[in-house]
Amino acid sequence: MKGRLYQIIFIFSLFLLSCTPGKEISFEVLQAAEFELPVENDSLLVLNLAYYPWVDTLSINVLNRVGKSEQYIIDTFVIASIFNGFFSVIDNSEIQWLTENQYYEIRGDRTENFLDALNIESVNYLCDEFKTSQIVALEYYGFDFEYDYREIDESHYVVLDFLRFMVWRIYQRDMGLIYKDIVRDTVNWIGYGINYAMAEDQLPGLLDAIKEAFWFAGESFAKKISPYWQEEVRNYYFMPVQGTSDMSLDMDYLTRISSKDKSRKGKIFKTYYNLAVVNEKEGNIEEAIETLRKAAVIRPNSKLVKSYMENLEKSLKRRDKVLQQISE
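Predicted structure:
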C-alpha cells in the first residue's frame, strides 16, 4: 500500500513539473532612467563638492570620531568608490552626451552655509568654464555602522548594519538647482556559524564594507539619471527533440510546431509560451504579447500566463520610455 502511495505521489509530481516551466534564461534589458535630464546638452560636468570629513557636524558621520590622518585615508577610499560606481554606468550610457563628461573637485573646509545649494551665478560660471550646461554634483557623504549579535537555535549570527547618507544635486545653466537626491539608507551583511568568531569571519572588513557600500551608492545614483542595462530572468518549458539538441527556444522550430496539429493542446501551449519568451529576448515585445495571447486562449485561467502578460505590458511601457530618452 505504501509503495502504491509513493508511486501516486511520484506521478503527481511529474504532472506538476510538466505544467511548470522548468528552465531559465537570462538576458540584458535596457531600463529607463528615473529622472530625465534636459536633452539640449553636449557634455556633462561631474563635480565633487563633498566637504572634507573634519568639516562635518552631522552626528551620523563616524569619521568625526577618528583622527585626521585616518579621515584622509578613509575619505580617499569613499570618494574613489562612489565615482567608480557612478562612472561604471555613465561611461557606458546609451545617451551619448552623458559619456562626454568631465570630472572636477572643489572641496573645502568652510562651515558657513553648510550644505547650501550653489547659486545661479556659481552654476553659470562653472558652465562657462567647462563649456557645458549641465552639472551633477556630490555634495555630502557620511556613514555610521553597528554590529548586532544574535543567537537563534544554537546558531550564532552577526549583523553588520552600514548606514549611508549622501546628498546629490543637479544644476542647469540659467536655472540653478533642478534636482536633489538625498540618500539615507542601510546596507546589511549577515554572518552565521557555530560561534560568534565563525560568524564574524563571514562579514567583510570595515574598509571592504565602506568600498562596497559606496560603490553601489554611486552606481545607484547614476542609474537614476541614465538608462542602464539590467539582467532579466524568464522561465520556459523544456522541449527536447529526439536526435537533435534542445530546441526549446529555437524560433524556427517553435514557429513550425505552432502551425501544425493543434489537437495536442499541451504542447501547443508550451510552444506559444516559449515563443513569447524568445520574442521578448529579441526585443520584439509586441510579438511576445501577441503570441502569449494565443497561449491564453488554450489555457485562459493560467496564472502563469497572466503573470507573464503583466510583465510584458510593463516591459512595453519601459521600452517606450527608454526609446524616448535615448532618441531625443
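Summary: The first strand starts at residue 23 and ends at 31.
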